[in-house]
Write a structure and sequence with these properties.
The chain is α+β, with helices and mostly antiparallel strands and 205 residues long. It has 8 helices and 4 strands; from the N terminus they run βαβαββαααααα. Helix 1 packs parallel to helix 3, helix 1 crosses helix 6 and helix 4 packs parallel to helix 6.
């Protein structure tokens, strides 16, 4: 399998943590791929017209685009505890958590895109909206994290942990831990996992 990969992408990192947790991290040929919103990478587009990463190319030529779809595929390749429950209330609870955490990631990516612009060119209304959404998602995760330690690690918690790490990486001045002690304590434990240490974000700009 070939994975279009970047050490800065939180979406790629989600895939790699899932792969590490289920013992499939050595199955990839990782191809360093740069995906920028304002530029087409022909190597990525050659495999997936979406032009974003991660993209997984299977040995039979099938192409899977997007972190959730790739994690779902990887989850089908092992016999251990699923990262995405297949049915019932557990599935919908996991997808509820994943939806909020992944939405937080989407918001942070959009917000960071504005920070890359000169200050006078930033879309202030978008920045304010992203800030409000970020705080709302973090408050939701604080409440939900009260049950994290009683639940099996799945794609929801993994995505939440990746989003919090991305906050620390790109928005170091934002004190997201203030007023969120349960989420902050859980995140410290999350950062100690072998899978998260093996996939730490690297800024190779």
């Amino acid at each position: 399998m070939k994975l279009h990969w970047s050490p800065r992408s939180p979406y790629v990192r989600k895939v790699m943590i899932v792969a590490c947790e289920i013992g499939l991290d050595d199955r990839f040929e990782k191809v360093r791929s740069v995906a920028i919103r304002t530029r087409i990478n022909p190597d990525i587009v050659r495999d997936s017209p979406v032009g974003r990463i991660p993209v997984l190319v299977l040995d039979n030529g099938t192409v899977i685009s997007g972190s959730y779809a790739i994690c779902d595929y990887l989850d089908s390749l092992h016999d251990g505890a699923p990262m995405i429950p297949s049915a019932g209330a557990a599935r919908w609870r996991e997808l509820e958590l994943h939806g909020i955490a992944d939405g937080l990631l989407d918001t942070l990516i959009a917000w960071w895109g504005e920070f890359l612009k000169p200050e006078g060119q930033r879309w202030q209304a978008l920045c304010e909206t992203c800030a409000t959404k970020t705080n709302a998602c973090l408050d939701w995760l604080e409440r939900r994290s009260e049950s994290f330690e009683r639940e099996a690690l799945g794609i929801g918690q993994i995505t939440a942990g990746v989003a919090l790490d991305y906050l620390d990486f790109r928005f170091a001045d934002l004190d997201w831990r203030a007023g969120r002690p349960t989420l902050a304590a859980w995140h410290e434990n999350f950062r100690r996992r072998a899978s998260t240490k093996a996939t730490e974000i690297v800024n190779d700009e």
